[in-house]
Structures are given as structure tokens and as C-alpha cells.
Amino acid sequence: QPLHTLRNAEKELLPGYHQFEWQPALKNVSSSWDVGIIDGLSGWTSSVDDVPADTIARRFRYDVALVSALKDLEEDIMEGLRERGLDDSTCTSGFTVVIKESCDGMGDVSEKHGSGPAVPEKAVRFSFTIMSISIRADGEEDAITIFQEQKPNSELSCRPLCLMFVDESDHETLTAILGPVVAERKAMLESRLILSVGGLLRSFRFFFRGTGYDEKMVREMEGLEASGSTYVCTLCDSTRAEASQNMVLHSITRSHGENLERYEIWRTNPFSESADELRDRVKGVSVKPFMETQPTLD
């Protein structure tokens, strides 16, 4: 046998190794990375200073982690198809997977008698949970849910994707580390995963909901001022004074796109305004938002 066929045969015996394909192929995702734990900065090393870059984060490639999670649920998926009376040989496309993303600081993780590399003493963990899998059968209007996570907030259903030494309020480092994760997530929205489940190739689409972030993290990712800001809400432009007058009539007015536009105004100050006027115009957007967090109830 030529060497590469042996290599491939060997790979398939590794735990956690699964053959899969994206159609179309993912943009902005390096195909050469092997399936395994990769350096969390993956190509951004020049943008983070002060710390030896290769020590700062470790992560899985997002699509590889999702494949592994789906393969873990293989029996549940097949069971769901059987329970709904669906003929599994006709259900090869039209699967929709909803992913809940979570990200939070893990507090102080400093070494008590440190002799390791100089790294920040705070850590942040980014993880995801498969919330539901549904299928739209041919000719049917409504999607049929074949898997629903029973304990969506449990540690057991939550899968770590990236662990990083960084303080959650260090916007620049967080952006540099999660930048590639965001790029992969965006690429996956525009593509379908082809994966063998129950012996047949099936196609999956993914939807991501950032509902596992607490308020501090939402503010961090959307580029808003911290919790002490006059602009108190992450979803609308209320100031503290307005919110205390009016506890009821609020509409969701912020969007990720709008926050990006406001950041550009903050950066360029096109109307040559004073700092106070400018701040009033951008309503508490102070840095470039880098991850879209959608206002949905968990």
C-alpha cells in the first residue's frame, strides 16, 4: 500500500477522527490543520504582545468540534428519526442544527509558585452546546425536531472549544484569539456539512445563537462601554435616567451592524464633534464589536 493510504487508514482508527466534507468548502479556514488541538492564535501571533503567544490559547477547530459533537449524538439522531416514523434512507438532507454558544471568564487561575511562562492570570473559556436538531421532510411545511437537549445548561452538554489565558475585559486580546473562531463560524453559515450518520451521508446546516454570554461578555463582544456606562442597556439606547423613568416601553434597537457603523463614527469623528457630543452620538459604543450576539431568550 502506498504510504498515504496507510496514513489515512491509521487516522480513522484514532478516537474522535471522523471523515467529513463541507459544500462549498469553508472559506478562511485552513485545510492543512490536522484534526486536534491547535494553537488558539492560529496565525494572529503578531497581534498580541507581552506574552509568549504560543502559550496563550488552545482550541479545537470549530467545524471539527461540531462534527465530533454530532457523531456523539449519532444514536440519538437515529432514535429521533425512528420515533417520528421517518424513513431514515430518505432523510439525507435538510437537517438543521441550533448551537448555543457560551463564553465566560474563569476568574483567577494564577500559579501559586509560578515557574512557568509569564501568562495573564485570568482565563476565559468559549464553549458550545447542541440545543436541537430538526429535519424538514420532503413536501412538509414544518420542520420536525428529532433531538432536543434536555439539560441545555448542564456542564455535561456543554463542550469546550477554546481555552485562553486572557482577562475577559481585555478587548484586544480577546478579539485576536476569537477572531479566527468568528471567521470559521461565519464560513459555516454559508455552507453545508456532509457527514455519515447511521451509515448514510447526510447534510447539516448550522445556526448559532450567542445566548450563553452574561451581560459583561455581551458588552465586551459588541464593543459597548462597560457596565458602569450611562448607556445601560445592551439592546437599546436607553440612558440610566431614561430607563428609571420608563421601565416598560423599550424596543430592541441595537444591531451588530449598527454598532459597527457607530464604531466607525467614533473612530473617524466625521462631524468634528467634542468628546461628549461624539459619545452621545454613538451611545456608548467604544471599541470595534467583533462577535454578533443575538438577543434571544435562552
Instruction: Outline the low-pLDDT stretches.
Output: none
What is the CA-CA span between the terminal residues? 52 Å
What's the pLDDT, averaged over the residues?
A: 84
Largest sheet: 9 strands, mixed
Quote the beta fraction: 15-25%
**Total domain modules:** 2
Give the ordered list of helices and strands: HEEEHHEEEEHEEHHHH
Radius of gyration, taken over Cα atoms and rounded to an integer in Å: 22 Å
Broad shape: globular
**Total of DSSP H or I helical runs spanning 4+ residues:** 8
Helix content: 25-40%
Strand elements, count: 9
Counting helices, strands and paired strands, the structural category is: alpha+beta
Domain V(D)J recombination-activating protein 1 pre-RNase H: 21-93
Domain V(D)J recombination-activating protein 1 ZnC2: 231-293
InterPro entries: RAG1, RAG1_DNA-bd, RAG1_pre-RNase_H, RAG1_RNase_H, RAG1_ZnC2
GO molecular function: double-stranded DNA endonuclease activity; histone binding; protein homodimerization activity; sequence-specific DNA binding; ubiquitin protein ligase activity; zinc ion binding
Please tag this protein with its features:
9 strands, 8 helices, RAG1, 9-stranded mixed beta sheet, single chain, 24% strand, 2 domains, zinc ion binding, sequence-specific DNA binding, 298 residues, alpha+beta
Structure description:
- This protein has 298 residues and is of the alpha+beta class.
- The chain folds into 2 domains: 3-213, no CATH class; 222-282, no CATH class.
- 28% of the residues lie in helices and 24% in strands.
- It is built from 8 helices and 9 strands.
- Strands 1, 2, 3, 4, 5, 6, 7, 8 and 9 form a 9-stranded mixed sheet that branches.
- It is globular.
- The relative contact order is 0.15.
- The mean pLDDT is 84.
- Residues 21-93 form the V(D)J recombination-activating protein 1 pre-RNase H domain.
- GO terms for molecular function: double-stranded DNA endonuclease activity; histone binding; protein homodimerization activity; sequence-specific DNA binding; ubiquitin protein ligase activity; zinc ion binding.
- Residues 231-293 form the V(D)J recombination-activating protein 1 ZnC2 domain.
- Residues 97-229 form the V(D)J recombination-activating protein 1 RNase H domain.
